[in-house]
Design brief:
With 310 residues, the protein is of the alpha/beta class. 45% of the residues lie in helices and 21% in strands. It has a domain at 1-109 and 146-182: Spore Coat Polysaccharide Biosynthesis Protein SpsA, Chain A, CATH 3.90.550.10. It has helices at 18-26, 68-79, 98-109, 123-127, 129-142, 160-167, 173-180, 198-215, 217-236, 238-255, 266-282; strands spanning 7-12, 32-37, 55-59, 84-88, 112-120, 150-154, 184-194, 286-288, 291-297, 300-306. This is Glycosyltransferase.
Length: 310
């Protein structure tokens, strides 16, 4: 049992997964795990009577003007009993001391977040691992951004009322939280499997591209210019660029204690960045979590349809 204040852990999911069980097993007696789903039709709702006593099911309802994830987090924050809040996801392994370690990290640093390392399950997402290592892992760490898969903060650390108001009219929960919360990213990466099909990977890449564009337009523009310059150099001087890109990504992987051979794909991944960025910005809609969204501006979101495809 830790000496930290009790925490409410918010976990959006439609199914009871290994991650749910892992987090539930780590709760102190005064902690709670809130499993956030849409409605009674979600498979996890059928397990309501089987949930441990310190686990509660929260039905967020259908999102209107925001993403399903943002809607679920907003409902969870309102339902949570405690001032200390933890956000997490159901798609990565939570080791036995995960929650206690985050609690201790807050005592040293204040609001803290871990980092994602996205691991592909199809050809496209495997190819893009070096790009996501640079943007999704190093980018979060170096720019003091939030990863919604593992972040701990207290209500007084931000303007909660304003944050919830904005959360319910946007797409990205952690993109928005990064604007409201001063957070310390920890150099601790969690492996998150993504993709499964090329279509799923394309939809995810569109969402990632538009999150950066909506929340950090200057960074988005700068990154695009850099990618254009690097692509030109890669085509003009392929051998030195191959060597340099591979070496830099090998060092990046090592810095975050990731043992994956995909750093060797840094050169072809870099060549793919410009066309994929253009594709991500040109797309008018994208699918996330079974819903198709049209994201016109940061606070202008339309749920176009509920779809079975990711």
């Amino acid at each position: 049992m830790s000496d930290s204040p009790p925490a409410s852990v918010l976990l959006p999911t439609v199914r009871w997964t290994d991650a749910c069980r892992e987090v539930a097993d780590q709760l102190d007696p005064d902690d709670e795990l809130l499993v956030l789903c849409d409605d009674e039709t979600d498979p996890v709702a059928a397990r309501r009577d089987e949930l441990p006593p310190d686990v509660r099911l929260v039905l967020a309802g259908e999102p209107v003007g925001c993403s399903g994830k943002a809607n679920a987090i907003a409902a969870g924050m309102r339902a949570a009993e405690h001032d200390r809040l933890v956000w997490t996801d159901d798609d990565f392994h939570h080791p036995p001391e995960w929650l206690a370690t985050l609690q201790a990290d807050y005592g040293r640093h204040g609001p803290v977040t871990e980092l994602p390392f996205f691991v592909g399950r199809d050809a496209l997402s495997v190819l893009l691992e070096p790009l996501y290592a640079g943007g999704g892992t190093l980018g979060v760490y170096a720019n003091d951004k939030v990863w919604g898969g593992a972040v701990l903060f207290e209500r007084d650390d931000l303007d909660e009322a304003a944050f919830l108001r904005d959360l319910e009219r946007t797409v990205s929960d952690d993109g928005l939280l990064s604007e409201y919360l001063d957070v310390t990213p920890l150099r601790r990466a969690r492996t998150v499997e993504i993709g499964g099909t090329v279509r799923k990977s394309l939809e995810r890449h569109v969402r990632f591209t538009q999150i950066v564009f909506r929340h950090e337009p200057l960074i988005s523009a700068f990154s695009t210019v850099v990618a254009l310059v690097v692509t030109a150099l890669a085509l003009l001087f392929p051998v030195p660029v191959v060597v340099l890109a591979t070496l830099l990504h090998a060092l990046l992987y090592a810095a975050f204690d990731v043992r994956r051979p995909t750093f060797l794909l840094a050169y072809p991944a870099g060549l793919a960045q410009v066309p994929l960025t253009a594709y991500g910005l040109a797309r008018r809609t994208f699918v996330w979590g079974g819903r198709r969204y049209r994201w016109r501006s940061k606070y202008d979101v339309e749920v176009v349809e509920r779809s079975g495809a990711e």
